[in-house]
Amino acid sequence: MANTQQATGKSKNRGKQRLEPNEKHPIQIDEFPGRVRVAFNGHLIANTANAVRLQEADYPPVYYIPRHDCDWRLFTPSDHASHCPYKGEASYFHLDVDGKRARDAVWSYEEPNPAVSRIGGFVAFYPDRVDRIEAD
């Protein structure tokens, strides 16, 4: 697999603010009972019956997908990173399919904060950077 580069999980959270979910900023993670599919540029890039759904505060739910249920040949690591005080440091990936690129369309928390450890090593997709995310 050409692009199986998966973030190394080096601790990038040291010295950064860490907050716990609370009444004002709740985070709930549960196993999604259905199937989640993600498509980009006419290709199915992720397909799983093992997703977890993260509901954070008033944001739309986010589906996190196990890496082994993604077509890693289509992922290219990005230099972009971000920090969420509730979840930790996120690594990003571009999607490259048949000459079309979706920049930083995918993110993953390799070493999430303990309160959200369930999403560690899973990936999530920006809905506006892929063709569709189906959860049924």
TrEMBL record:
Residue span(s) of domain DUF427: 36-128
Spans annotated as Disordered: 1-28
Biased composition (Basic and acidic residues): 17-28
Polar residues bias spans: 1-10
Top-level taxonomy: Bacteria, Pseudomonadati, Pseudomonadota, Alphaproteobacteria, Rhodospirillales
PANTHER family according to UniProt: BLR5716 PROTEIN (PTHR34310:SF9), DUF427 DOMAIN PROTEIN (AFU_ORTHOLOGUE AFUA_3G02220) (PTHR34310)
InterPro entries: DUF427 (IPR007361), DUF427_sf (IPR038694)
Source organism per UniProt: Ferrovibrio terrae
Protein name from the UniProt record: DUF427 domain-containing protein
